[in-house]
Amino acid sequence: MKYFLFDHTGSLNRGCEAIVRGTKNIISRNDKNPLFHLASYSPETDAALRIETSAIKPRALSGVEKIFAAIDLKINHSEYFSLKTAYSDVIQRAGDCDICLSVGGDTYCYGDNAPSRAIAKALHKNGKKTVLWGASIGKEDLSAEKIETLKMFDGIFVRESLTYALLEKIIPREKLFQFADPAFCMEREDLPLPQGFEQDNTLGFNLSPLVVKKNPELIDACVDFLKGIIQNTTLQIALVPHVTTPDSDDTTVLDEIYNRLNDSARVVKIPGNLNAMQYKGYIARCRFFIGARTHATIAAYSNGVPTIVLGYSVKSRGIAKDLFSEEKFVLDINTVSGTQALNSEFSKLLEQESDLRKTLRKVIPMTVKSAMDAGEQLMKI
Questions:
Q1: Which range among 88-92, 139-143, 157-161, 345-349 shows the weakest confidence by mean pLDDT?
Q2: What is the pLDDT of residue 78?
Q3: Cβ atoms within 10 A of the Cβ of 16, count?
Q4: Contacts for 59-67: CB closer than 8 Å, 24+ residues apart
Q5: Full-model pTM
Q6: What is the residue-averaged pLDDT of the chain?
Q7: Per-residue pLDDT for 45 more than 80?
Q8: How far is CA 332 from CA 82, 212, 311, 341, in A?
Q9: How far apart are CA 135 and CA 179, in angstroms?
Q10: What is the pLDDT of residue 105?
């Protein structure tokens, strides 16, 4: 079969890259000769995925099309005609595909998502099987328009139980499924460790502009916390970016932290030009990990690394809940105004290190199996 993967932001977001790589592995286990087409907002970043790729890019409407779009807006209060026409090239590329997967993960979390909804609706109207894949959605994200689109999908595969509990109230049970995030099925690639990175004695640390924007006090708290790590432990520190898109580049905040720590012997910067498998390889060799990017923390969980999530979303809380049966070591970024919360959480992480490793050794194989089992359900659709 041929699979049309759309709503992909681009591989400078290593979480999106990890979902695509994991999805390929999942499908390939259940379909011995799969073909893929990836519709991407940044196809120039996706060459390493080795998938047939095209751009998600709107075209200009003709004069006649603008008239029909204006009529649709006036009579139906809808932008559907305008959007499906603008993205008609994207929709046409799915013509020879058997099933269409919205692989954005967070696509229905942020904003109105009108273009994504219009593309999904047009694919559905064209008779294509459509699936929302590896998704998380919070109650605050829902709108009447989004609910209408969600009900249209032939299958909704959510990656954690909090989203499932929300959607089971509005989506028929026969269309709603819970499986672990596809990124759990992505391989790791181990590059040589840089000077200053001591395997199993390094604290991996990730921070994003997104969480700093939500809580500007966070960066000062993190700098002071990491200074305490340098002063009071033997741990090295590795600053690990995971998203380097122009509008949300982790290296900007991590560079500021590095410059303010001013201790090159104890702190190492991991480059911003690696792929998701390579970042997973570095994170796997940390003793502990603290991260704001969900898929950076998935890379840590996957390799049994005790982890603190600087969480703000349903996906962070839901994934932790499913691994540990409670929302464990997810630190609400809105509660961090100094080092107290970070110090307290890290002290607990140290105390529970052995138990956490045992728990992860037990649950990660089951989590990977859950993610892989999604492929079997997909084949039924």
A1: 139-143
A2: 87
A3: 28
A4: 59/86, 59/87, 59/88, 59/89, 60/86, 61/85, 61/86
A5: 0.95
A6: 95
A7: yes
A8: 40, 12, 5, 9
A9: 10
A10: 80
Which domains occur in the chain, in start order? Answer: 2-178 (3.40.50), 202-367 (3.40.50.2000)
Closest CA to 225 of 328, 349, 314: 349
Q: Are 80 and 121 in contact (CB under 8 A)?
A: yes
Rounded distance between C-alpha atoms, residue 167 and residue 193, angstroms? 43
Query: Which tokens in the block code for residue 330?
Result: 């997810």
Q: DSSP letter string over 278-341?
A: HHHHHHHT-SEEEESSHHHHHHHHHTT--EEEEE-SHHHHHHHHHHHSS-TTEEEGGG-SSSHH
Q: What is the DSSP string of 93-129?
A: HTTT-SEEEE--SSTTTSS--HHHHHHHHHHHHTT-E
Pairing of strands 288-291, 202-205: parallel
Q: E strands along 181-245, which residues?
A: 202-205, 236-239, 244-245
Written as one letter, the residue type at 1 is M
pLDDT of 263 higher than 80 = no
Q: Bridge partners of 227?
A: none
Find the angle CA(65)-CA(79)-CA(245) to the nearest 5 degrees: 105
Tokens (6 digits) for 205? 């640390």
Alpha carbon of 44 to those of 7, 50, 53, 269: distances in Å? 15, 12, 9, 25
What pLDDT, on a 0 to 100 scale, did the predictor assign at position 62? 93
